[in-house]
Amino acid sequence: MSPKRVLQELADQHLLDGKQRAVIQSVEDKKLFSVHWELRSLLYVGILLFTTGTGWLIYRYIDQIGHNLLILALAVLCAACFAFASRYKGPFTTDRSYSRSSFGDYALLLGCLLFLTLEGYLQYQYTIFGTRYGLVTFLPAILFLTLAYLFDHRGVLAMGLTALLSWIGVTVRPLEFYFKGNLKDMNVLLSALALGILLVVAALVLDRRRIKPHFTSTILTFAGNLVLVALVAGLFNFKEYHPVFAVSLAVACISFDWYARREHSFLFVLMSTFYGYIGATYLVFHYLQLRDEATYLYWIVTGIGITAYLSAHRKV
Amino acid sequence: MKAYNETWVRNKYLLEQVARWQRQGLLDDGKMQEIREKFPVGFHESNGFIEVGLFVFSIVAVSGSYFLLATLLSKLFDNETFYHFFNIGFGIAVGLLAGHLINSRKHYRSGTDNALVIAAIALVTVGIVGMFPDHWPLWHYCLIILPIVLLGVWYYSDLLLTLAAFGTLVTAIFDYILEFSFGTQLLPFVLMGVSTGLYALARLVENRDELIYWRDNFVLLEWLSLSLLLVSCNYFAVRELNFWMMDKRPAEAPEIAWAGFFWTLTMVVPMALFYLGFRQKERPLLIMSAIGWGLALATWRYFHPMFSLETYLVINGFLLILGAGYLIRYLRVPRNGFTDRPDEDSPTELAGNAGIISTTQAASGNLGPPGGMQFGGGDFGGGGSGSRY
């Protein structure tokens, strides 16, 4: 519906007087076309292409002359990015703060991605961390999380959390709906649970203290997926611990659902529903061994039940 | 007579525009309330995440019912006609259920109604197509399917059905044109013509007041037809199509007729889209022109590589950063009606989340598991954007 048509409609219903209508019309006539997000997307794509390219380039020319020059150039660029971001950094507050330059956030992002490339290279070529592989991911995790809070950057926060999950052996690739680790290993699974719970607690404490409250949902999304994936994996992989994992999964789902209702956060409703349903369905089919008709009946009952439940949630 | 209350749909679009003015401070809250009362919208408000869940679990319930009933009646399916009537009957029943929910629960694109509508139309279509002989060429069936799906689009204004209708039309054209001996040469031109025509049609009618019920469908059609245009004029796509249609395929795709012409189109069409988008200030045109440019460069690199892929990524990434950076600085003050200032239409939340997802993906690529560790275990769907709605 064109703005002109809407104005006409409102005027016809005597909801606008001539003056108001003229003001709105003149604002519409002078309206500018904003390409803010298009340009930022281009910048983003550029940064991702550039850092992916440099990452591959280093390994391709690893034995050739000029290779060290390339590393040096990248190190200088990385340092320059951090220097630029620091120079235009907004004053630190516990609430939202902004860089004083349009490019500050992007420089920080580019710097962090280049840092990862350089660090990976140094370990590959000179094994600077020796066999302490954990440090390769733990170091950037701590660095990125610190930078995220200092510079108020949700992208760098997500990178820090990704590195932290990598540290305990869980890989996250959201574009491929991919959340993977050796969760058949009880040690990895328990560390995943411990880290997940720690992150949930940290997020809630920071939220309560109003320290960067806009970070809470990002941290909880990572931590929630980690905890729920680990619990479902526990159900799948450790038959002898079914009661423990079943009860824990139920408690986790109910807690997330409760939190979602309190915070009006629909993503957490969806998360607890999906993981809960996967877990419950696995248990039902594992122990009851439903056949054809009973399987279809299970789909009907659960499908309608959850649809009704989610519909009720629409008004959270 | 449509599935959803047309006045409410119309009021919904009207209120969206009015809400924009309110955010700009042009209307006060009292006035806004007065307008809301005069133009009521009775639909239940929904949320994207809940819609996803509702869609998935409605499909689960419908599938369960379908298979249960089909298993119980399976003895009767020896008679094929009965099976087709069963599909049609079940589809109509699902459609009636959708209608009931839309009326009683005030659903509007809330996940459940989308799922039921898709299931209903799909079942009816399968039933009807099943009644016809099974040795016809594909495009015959497409021509049977298309009117049914279009009828569904007309009645429900559903976006997935729109996508299905578009897909059916393109498949029909594909299959029909390739029946001719010169079909492979003709096909790109027909597809270019059809996509341009559909785009022009969608642009022409998208703002028509009497067609507002289908506004989103026309906008989707614009995106779809522009994508088809970019693919159908692309040198790589045409050459591969030609290759796949050959009776005896050599090891490599051979050069095509009018190669120069298609190379020109590959480069010129994105430029033309940009010119039009710039002149008319049309977002789909501008965005698709940028994607078209990406495609054109990738095509050029594929056939005439000068450096390695990494070098291309580095150079193009660097140029993009410089270009975007220059434009952001340049548009600090408005020029030619363009500005870098975000406006009230900007998808701030969505763009922020897309950014976080792609950053995570990029970081994850550099954080591979430390050497030597065994990574087995199951795959689990997960991830998602972190945001509060």
UniProtKB/TrEMBL annotation, chain A:
Pfam family, one: DUF2157
Keyword Metal-binding: no
Stretches assigned to the DUF2157 domain: 9-155
The keyword Secreted appears for this protein: no
Segments traversing the membrane: 41-59, 65-85, 106-124, 130-151, 156-175, 187-206, 218-236, 242-260, 267-288, 294-312
Domain of life of the organism encoding this protein: Bacteria
InterPro entries in the record: DUF2157
Assigned keywords, A-Z: Membrane, Transmembrane, Transmembrane helix
Protein name, per record: DUF2157 domain-containing protein
Species name: Larkinella knui
From TrEMBL, chain B:
Origin: domain of life: Bacteria
Keywords: Membrane, Transmembrane, Transmembrane helix
Transmembrane segments: 48-69, 81-102, 114-132, 138-156, 163-180, 186-205, 217-237, 257-278, 285-303, 309-328
Protein name per Swiss-Prot or TrEMBL: DUF2157 domain-containing protein
Naturally occurring in which organism (per UniProt): Larkinella knui
Lineage, opening ranks: Bacteria, Pseudomonadati, Bacteroidota, Cytophagia, Cytophagales
